[in-house]
Amino acid sequence: MTDIFSIDYARQLDQQDPISRMREQFHIPKQDNGDDEIYLCGNSLGLQPKRTQEYLNYELSQWQKLGVKGHFSGDFPWMPYHEFLTEESAKLVGAKNSEVVCMNSLTANLHFMMVSFYRPTATRNKILIEDHAFPSDHYAVESQVRYHGFDPDQAMLLAKPREGEETLRTEDLLNLIELHGEEIALIMLPGVQYYTGQVLDMKAITQAGHAKGCKVGFDLAHATGNIPMHLHDWDVDFAAWCSYKYLNSGPGSVAGCFVHEKHHTNMELPRFAGWWGHDKDSRFKMENHFIPMKSAEAWQLSNPPILSLAAIRASLDTIKDAGGIQALRDKSLKLSRYLRDLLEQELADEINILTPADEKASGCQLSLTVNLHGLDGKTVFDRIEAAGVTCDFRHPNVIRVAPVPLYNSFEDAYRFVTILKDSLK
Ligand SMILES: *Cc1c(COP(=O)(O)O)cnc(C)c1O
């Protein structure tokens, strides 16, 4: 029988990997000894594609040479620049081109979406979110609830895993919606949960929510660039995501947003508007009569930061070069499976994996807890970091590792488990 826990076996898997060449298109941080870091932190900050510098330099030189005329000249004029990102962004989330736009930051987009899609009434004013949502999502929801004059203790309905369990069961979520649906104005859940790496059943949740008359939106911070989605077909009302995790567009880079086309012509929807959401043909007539575009772009406020969009364009071109999101997912399933198999074979007694084993319920992150008396997760994390692994630790007790299909290798997975094993001694 072949031993899967061997460097030869890992290298063989790399040789069979149709997108192993993509690793060379990224800057991989180095350890002090000059070796590549074992970078398993793309769920927090994705690595820099080599194209990025070139694309940024191009825009800097356009600005040097053209000044304001850069808005209208060159290969990628700034005026319509966000449109150059539309097609590839739409593919990532399974949307029509008119349904996506790159703008603002993630939390800002969640707020702007809630302005339009959280319309509480006396009897229907709750927002369903997770009990341990990412803090920014929790704060955004809480502050929206207060802004509308409701009490967060009453109006925030929190979905919890069962006693003794770490992940949410779809049946429990659906029951919650069935039970409280008439009081729920908005369901806002993650596509992929940041702490456990669990992929939620967005289609089933959306269907159940709509059946009860709720609006349904998703935070896709950990989903976009990780798993394929079909937001349009699933009939999701809105979604938002950041571009610096699996989209490798650099720290704090501009976020993405989806608004289903069925809302594009609804003139009743309230929104916080800005000039970049105004009809393109008359935007510069400065007539101060807001005519929203009939697309997700209607929610734009400002002319966007081009340097950040250039980094997103570099990232989207890199993903396209790899064959798109399905090619990433195909490798991701194998790479995560390999890492999981190694952990289960070598460290079954010492390590628990919180992330569901079911392929449909997991992406490219495994969340691990240490199960050894007298050794806590943080100590182990410090040891593996000192040995060349970059991953992250989330309180109270989880080591998150993300083997990213674009630039991580099967050898990375093998080396990680070797180091983890040593660190548990
Ligand atoms: C990363 C992440 C954020 C970060 O929000 P920013 O507005 O980009 O700072 C928010 N929510 C979730 C679920 C995240 O994973």
Describe the fold and architecture:
The chain is of the alpha/beta class and 425 residues long. It folds into two domains: 7-36 and 324-423, Aspartate Aminotransferase, domain 1, CATH 3.90.1150.10; 57-320, Type I PLP-dependent aspartate aminotransferase-like (Major domain) (Aspartate Aminotransferase, domain 2), CATH 3.40.640. It contains 13 helices and 13 strands. The protein has helices at residues 7-16, 51-66, 86-93, 106-117, 135-147, 152-155, 170-180, 202-211, 231-234, 306-322, 325-347, 377-386, 410-423, and strands spanning 38-39, 100-102, 126-130, 156-159, 184-190, 215-219, 238-241, 256-259, 351-353, 366-370, 389-390, 392-394, 398-401. It has a seven-stranded mixed beta sheet, sandwiched between helices. A four-stranded antiparallel beta sheet has the order 9-10-13-12, covered by helices on one side. The chain has a two-stranded parallel ribbon with strand order 1-11. Strand 12 and strand 13 (398-401) form a beta hairpin. Helix 7 (170-180) runs parallel beside helix 8 (202-211). The mean pLDDT is 96. Bound molecules: pyridoxal-5'-phosphate (PLP). The site of pyridoxal-5'-phosphate has 12 residues, from helix 4 and helix 5.
